[in-house]
Amino acid sequence: MAVFLQKTMGVHVDPSALFDIQIKRIHEYKRQLLNILRVIFYYQTIKEKIEVTRSTTNILPKVIVFGGKAAPGYHKAKLIIKLINAVAEKVNGDVSIQGLLKVVFIPNYSVSLAELIIPASDLSQHISTAGMEASGTSNMKFALNGGLIIGTLDGANIEIREAIGLDNMFIFGKTADQVGPTRQSNSTKFSAHGEDPRYVQAILAVKSGQFGPGETFNDIIDPLLNPSHDFYLLGADFASYLDAHDKVDKAFQNKNQWTKLSIQSTAGMGIFSSDRSIKEYADNIWNVKPIKLPSQH
């Protein structure tokens, strides 16, 4: 993966860093925007630590990878891709952070690229607004390949939790039952800066032009500063999301703990194997039985 990023993207990464990956169709409810705002805050935190302490001690190196395609007419999804690339250009070119953070958007995401990316994952992001994600399989693929999951209780994350246990995942955010009441509560809030200050700090970094002309991103950023317009609840989940990443960082820095979590997660994923799935289809839906090949007689 590191060689691929160097050769195709011109981005040099540390293979021992935490590989943090989100590869999904680009959509507001899948919340790639929440992820990149978290990356902006982490970038600001690294810079501040280095400026204050003149040291990189206790700063976890990370490689943040995005991939996925947007529908041709989906303006906001295209803006999210543009913002990810703008942040990547800024972060990757900042020599002051000494390569401790790299951000990459891999273009033309495909199954062939997934075969490379998924096994390289330490952490995969499945962070849709609860109650909005269909039960897909990408999180299953990541977990079957040894990666750990950070996500909301949504989609297949719920089934995976039942199979591997909550202790082997990093779950955050509002549940599906809480989403409706939270939106109702937000509908009466109009303060532009009443949210978590870390969230506001990341948003204002975009608006102030730190990643290119701020007005470029108005359509995706301005609604976030008004809770009544934040339909996908980025503000409501941001603090919990950062807390979950703190837990990830602590676990990753303890190699024995991380290895144990990875093994336990993968060991519990057998129920999601294609062999089991196809056998159940054969038994319960197709009503077909195995036959012996001539060489087996």
Structure write-up:
This protein has 297 residues and is of the alpha/beta class. It has one domain (2-296): 3-Layer(aba) Sandwich (Rossmann fold), CATH 3.40.50.2000. The chain is built from 12 helices and 6 strands. It has helices at residues 2-9, 32-53, 75-92, 111-120, 138-144, 156-164, 176-186, 197-207, 218-221, 234-253, 255-267, 274-286; strands spanning 18-23, 62-67, 101-106, 123-126, 148-151, 170-171. It has a 6-stranded parallel beta sheet, sandwiched between helices. Helix 3 (75-92) links the parallel strand 2 (62-67) and strand 3. Helix 2 (32-53) packs parallel to helix 3 (75-92) and helix 2 (32-53) crosses helix 8. The longest helix is centred in the first third of the chain and has 22 residues, at 32-53.
What oligomeric state best describes the polypeptide chains here?
Answer: single chain
CATH topology: Rossmann fold
What's the name of the CATH homologous superfamily?
Glycogen Phosphorylase B
Radius of gyration: 20 Å
Largest beta-sheet details: 6 strands, parallel
Determine and state the CATH class.
Alpha Beta
Estimated share of beta-strand residues: 5-15%
Main sheet: strand order? 3-2-1-4-5-6
Structural class: alpha/beta
